[in-house]
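seq as requested:
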Amino acid sequence: MCLRFFKKRKEKKKLKEVTERYEADVLSPERLNDRDFVKRYIVEQCEQMTKSATELSDLKKEYGTLTSYLTDIQLIETMDGEDRNKLIDIANNIVNLNKAKKSMMETLTKIPDSKYNELDNMKDDIPKAIERLGENEKTQAMMKKDMDYLDGEKIEWSYEKSAINDEQNTLKKLSFLLILLIGSAAIVYFCLMSLYGGEKVHLVLIIALLSGLAECGILWRMQNNKKDIMQCNVNYNNAVDIQNSVKLKYVNITNAVDYAHDKYHTKSADELESDWQKYLEAKKDRERLIEANEDLDYYQDTMVELLRSYNLYDAAVWPYQVDALLDPKEMVEVKHAHLEKRQDVRVRMGELVDTVRETKSKVEKLATEQNVLNAEVRGIIETVNRITGDIA
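struct tokens:
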């Protein structure tokens, strides 16, 4: 129930808005007695009538234009054989040139205008810049690999030095043990010599002798390890020196590469080479496009000149709808579109004629009855008569 109440209120509110919007146009019997309202009403109707008459005048012009276009189509379809063949040849040339232009435009869109202009301004430097940048990038990559290799060498020499040092520590311990063993064997030897003489000490002597030989071997190995440690230090320091030299050159070459990237707004020599090739293709297409436009202008002007010799209403429109000249089906479509539009204009003209005639009759009758046919109203009616011509 509540919803229904609000719905009714909403409908009444809407009705009031609509009523107020058009109430001023309603000529009620009570308002006929209000002379000022009648004058305002007549003036408003005259203004509406003037707008309708103006629209009718514009539609008459449009109707005449559409009729002229249909007449042009008839004139083209009835051209003599030689001129007709000439027209077809011109139309084919225009179609082919438009296709070529479309293809060129697709190529031109592969590189933005800003990039094209940038490369065009530096066109004398680009080929050498591509070569120089490519060489610098290769050198930069090589130096990066060399520095990575030298890093590996440094790690390898450090690891080898550490391994030799571990071996040296182990050999020192073995050497100490062997010295103890030799000393112990010497003591045992002298003790046995005192007790038994030289008959039962040969085993101890052999042990001492072997221990001495082992000790000599260890000492020899440790001496060689010292040399290897020194060589590891030399190799490590040499790798560091070379790497420092490479780093300096790497920084310089990297600065050169970064500068070229910033200057030519590119990420690599390959990208710059790709943009350069696109620029060269675009430049050729722009030159060809200029030639195509010149040829297109020539054939369009030739077509217009030929059609104007047949006194067409608008010969200049046909270079832009050459498909209709080459394909009878397209020409039928063009003709059909003009006929449909002309029919719509004719219907609208009929509606406006009825509206103006009805309004004019009502205004004249009301002005006469109310005796308000003043100079202003007469002037508006005369203006409408001039615009509408033979409308009564």
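The chain has eleven helices and no strands.
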